[in-house]
Design goal:
The protein is an alpha+beta fold and 99 residues long. It has 4 helices and 6 strands. The strands form 2 sheets. Strands 1-2-6 form a 3-stranded antiparallel beta sheet. The structure holds zinc ion (ZN) (2 copies). The site of one zinc ion has 6 residues, from helix 4. One zinc ion (ZN) binds next to helix 1 and helix 2.
Length: 99
């Protein structure tokens, strides 16, 4: 799990998001249509990240919650065409819940 230190929320585990979502969180924009993709390794969730609608389309992701459980899923996740980076998970969730 990546770890971040947020100016507002202090240090805690981060959410991993694509660069577009991270930008939106930084700009305090409301997030919509956020996709979550998770991969498993040895039948346990190994890694998951959030991507925007454009990144989802580019990577042929069509389900808002995509959970891959096959053995190649982790390789596929890391091979995805988008730049992901950690962001404060509380800021991220605040941005998703903003009305
Ligand atoms: Zn994106
Ligand atoms: Zn924060």
């Amino acid at each position: 799990m990546p770890y971040v230190i947020c100016k507002q929320h202090g240090g805690h585990p981060a959410s991993v998001v694509c660069e577009h979502l991270r930008q939106a969180v930084e700009n305090r924009e409301r997030l919509q249509g956020v996709f979550y993709v998770e991969a498993s390794h040895m039948n346990a969730p190994a890694w998951g990240h959030y991507i925007c609608g454009n990144c989802a389309r580019e990577n042929q992701i069509s389900e808002l919650r995509t959970i891959w459980k096959d053995d190649d899923s982790l390789d596929r996740l890391f091979a995805m065409k988008c730049n992901v980076s950690p962001v404060c998970s509380r800021c991220f969730h605040d941005a998703m819940n903003t009305k």
